[in-house]
Structures are given as structure tokens and as C-alpha cells.
Amino acid sequence: MTGWVIAASLALLVLLILFYVVSIPRMAREITAAALLIGLAGYAWQGNPGLAGAPRKAAGTQAASFDEGLAEQRRALAERYGPAGQWLMMSDGLGRQGKSKEAANILLSGLRQTPDDPNLWLGLGNALVVHADGVVSPGADFAYRRAMAVDEKAIAPRFFYGLALARSGQLQPARALWAPLEQTLPEGSKLKAELKANIARIDVLMASEGPRPE
Q1: Matching InterPro entries, A to Z (predicted)?
Q2: Exposed end of the chain (fewer CB within 10 Å): N or C?
């Protein structure tokens, strides 16, 4: 309700200033009032006036947390040495400091030198997800897809893309990536067991949600 009060008060204040302080012509008054009403209608349609404002993060606080376990898993599945490994190591270091934007930017610098390195594209996808607080942004989505396109047989891009999707609530797309990948892995491998468990959890969650409306 606070949002409505603020919006309406601002509109009324603007009208009072224009009508009695600036003294705009009568015809202009009608146009101005109509424009403000349209603005309020748009706010009612697209805005959320009943929601409280999101608190701003204090300066100096970490915008995103660095997942050391996830980074180690990436290093186990993807290249950790060579040119890509050096860029990824620098990115990880920035990520540990909470500098998620810089962690992604350093990988962009590496991709300018080697634009067809799937490990750098994978690292960029992970870094962008961290920077967006777990959301798979269009940039992260592109980075993961680019990593898979550059190396169609690579395990890491499909695994981490699926993981990012699952964590963001996109269960069906995550399952669609993981199920074929799990089938290609050798029996007894740790990753195969992990994927089986993840897929089983997704199936339970999807079953509990019930069929989606057409």
C-alpha cells in the first residue's frame, strides 16, 4: 500500500506545481493530467506497489559467495593447467574476494585471446551465475551453450549448465541435460552416481508439483 501512497502523492505534487507555480495553460493542464494518469496505470499494471523496497547492499559487502567446492569440481572435470587454467585461477581468486564482476571480466579477457576455449566459456558461465546471485542470466546461458558447442563431447559444460539450471528452479531443462550425460558415464564413477541422485531428486520434485496446465 505504501507504493500507491508514494506514487499518488508524487503525481499530485507534480500537478500542483505545474498548475499553481508554473501556471501552465488550461489545455496543457488536461494533457499533463492525462499523462500522469497513464503513468499511474502503467505502475499498477507492471509494478508491485504492495511490495516492500529491496534493501540496498552496504558498500564493501560481498555481492555473491564463492563456492570453493564447486570450483574444485570444475577443476576436476575441466582443464586446470595451460592458458585456460591460468585465467580460471585468476578468476577464482577474484571470486574468493567477492569481486564477482571482476571474476567474470577476467575470463572475458582470456576469451579475447582464445575465443574457442570451452573451459573459459564454462568458467564464464559459472562466474556470471555467481554474479547474478544464482540466476542463469542470458549471458550465462550463452556462455554455457557456447562451451557445449565448442566441445560437444565435453562433460563439464553439460554438468555445470544443468547444475545452474537446477539450482535456479529450472528442473525440466536440467534433467534434459543430465539424463543423456548420465547414460554416457561409466558404471561406478562418482559423477554418474551424483547425476543419478540429482535426477531422482528432480523427478520427486516434479512429481510433487503435479502436471503443469496446458
Answers
A1: TPR-like_helical_dom_sf
A2: C
Written as nine digits, the cell of 207 is 512429481
Residue 166: exposed, middle, or buried by beta-carbon count in 10 A (0-12, 13-18, 19+)? buried
CATH class label, 68-209: mainly alpha
Whether the CB-CB separation of 4 and 21 falls below 8 Å is answered with no
Domain locations in the chain as residue ranges: 2-46, 68-209
Reported residue count of the chain is 214
pLDDT tens for 160-170 read 999 999 999 99
Compute the distance between CA of residue 157 and CA of residue 149 in angstroms, rounded to an integer: 9
**80-93 confidence digits (pLDDT tens):** 556 788 888 899 88
Distance between CA atoms of residues 95 and 103, nearest Å? 6
Query: How many C-beta atoms surround the C-beta of residue 121 within 10 A?
Result: 26
* Dist CA 62 CA 79 (whole Å): 28
Report the 10 Å Cβ neighbour count for 117: 23
